[in-house]
Design brief:
Length: about 325
C-alpha cells in the first residue's frame, strides 16, 4: 500500500512513530544466538531516506528502495521544506509562501516515489510512505532515525552551496543518528565485494554483523580490512602484523557457521585504515565502518576513519551506528 503523509507546519517532536527496536550493539561477550535474536527485532522498522529533488538524492532514494525491497521492509521518503530559512537561503523576514512550498514539496515527493517504484515495490505489500515536513533536514531525519532500521542520505544537492548543505546532512546523520546510516554518493554498482573495517572495538563488531548480512544478501565476497600505520607504531612490525591478524580472526569468529556461503578475504596491512578501505572500496558494492574505533573517547560521535571513508568513498557507505 502506498501512502503520503503531510506534516506541513507540524513540529518535529509532535510526530508519532511506531515503537520498535533498532540494531543493538554487540559486545564481544554476547553470544551468536543473542546477536541473531537482537537483529531480528528490527525487521519491521522502516528504511528512511531524505530527498531534496536533486539527482544525487534520487540516487539515494533508489538505493534505499532496493535495500528495503531486499529486506521486505517499508520505505519512508522525507522532504523537509525548512532548509532554505534554516541556512539563510531566504531572509528570515521574507514572507513564506506556504502554497508554493507545499506544492514544490509534493512534486519532489512524487518524483521520489516514481524513483523508488522503478526498482520494485519495497516489501510489506509495497509500503512506500512519503512525508512533507516543515523543518530543517537534519532534525527531521534524526527524529525519524529514532525508529528506523536504516536512514539513508545522498551526498550532494543543487549548486555549490547546497552541495555543502546536503553534505552537512549526511555528515550530521553519520555523527548523531541512533541507527545505522547509509551515505550514498551516486548510483552505486550491483557487483563487487562488501568491504568492512575492523579494529576489535564494539563499534567494529556491529560493522561486522551488518557486513556479513549484506554479503549474504547479495552473494558477495566479504573483504575484512585491518590497517595499522607506522605513524602509530609502538612495537616491531612483525608483532603488529600478528596482532592485526588476531584482531581479524577474533572479529569474525563464529560467523563462518552462521554465514557458510560467504567467502571471506582478510586484508591486514601496514597502511592507514581509511586509505586501504577506500582503495578496496573502489571495486566494492558497499563499505561498512564502525562509527568510531578503539581510539575513540566517551561522547565521540564519529571517528577519523569513518569520517574519511564517508567523505572519500565513491560507493555507498554504511556507518554502523548504535543506540546511544
Amino acid at each position: 500500500m502506498s501512502r503520503t503523509r503531510l506534516t506541513f507546519g507540524t513540529p518535529i517532536g509532535d510526530q508519532q512513530h511506531t515503537p520498535g527496536a533498532v540494531i543493538a550493539s554487540y559486545a564481544s561477550d554476547i553470544d551468536h544466538s543473542e546477536r541473531a535474536k537482537t537483529m531480528s527485532t528490527h525487521h519491521d522498522l522502516p528504511v528512511v531516506v531524505g530527498c531534496d529533488g536533486s539527482f544525487p538524492s534520487l540516487d539515494a532514494v533508489r538505493w534505499a528502495a532496493a535495500y528495503a525491497a531486499e529486506r521486505k521492509a517499508p520505505l519512508r521518503i522525507v522532504y523537509a521544506i525548512g532548509m532554505a530559512a534554516e541556512f539563510g537561503l531566504r531572509a528570515p523576514y521574507a514572507p513564506v509562501d506556504d502554497e508554493y512550498e507545499r506544492a514544490e514539496g509534493e512534486a519532489v515527493l512524487a518524483d521520489a516515489r516514481v524513483a523508488a517504484e522503478s526498482v520494485g515495490e519495497p516489501g510489506l505489500g509495497g509500503d512506500i510512505g512519503t512525508e512533507l515536513v516543515r523543518a530543517a533536514a537534519i532534525p527531521a531525519l534524526l527524529d525519524r532515525a529514532e525508529h528506523a532500521r536504516l536512514v539513508v542520505s545522498g551526498t550532494r544537492g543543487h549548486g555549490a552551496f547546497l552541495r555543502g548543505l546536503l553534505g552537512s546532512t549526511s555528515s550530521a546523520l553519520a555523527r548523531h543518528a541512533r541507527c545505522p546510516v547509509a551515505v550514498v554518493p551516486g548510483p552505486g554498482q550491483d557487483s563487487g565485494p562488501v568491504v568492512v573495517g575492523v579494529d576489535g572495538s564494539r563499534h567494529s563488531a556491529l560493522a561486522i554483523e551488518i557486513a556479513f548480512d549484506e554479503a549474504e544478501q547479495h552473494g558477495a565476497e566479504l573483504v575484512v580490512v585491518h590497517g595499522w600505520s607506522e605513524v602509530f607504531r609502538y612495537a616491531p612490525r612483525t608483532e603488529l602484523q600478528r596482532e592485526g591478524e588476531l584482531v581479524v580472526s577474533e572479529s569474525i569468529a563464529g560467523y563462518g557457521e552462521r554465514y557458510p556461503e560467504v567467502k571471506v578475504r582478510r586484508v591486514v596491512v601496514e597502511e592507514r585504515p581509511a586509505r586501504r578501505l577506500l582503495s578496496e572500496g573502489e571495486r566494492a558494492r558497499l563499505i561498512v565502518v564502525g562509527s568510531h574505533g578503539r581510539g575513540g573517547f566517551p561522547g565521540m560521535t564519529l571517528g577519523s576513519v569513518a569520517q574519511a571513508v564517508v567523505h572519500g568513498a565513491t560507493v555507498p557507505v554504511i556507518v554502523a551506528r548504535e543506540p546511544s
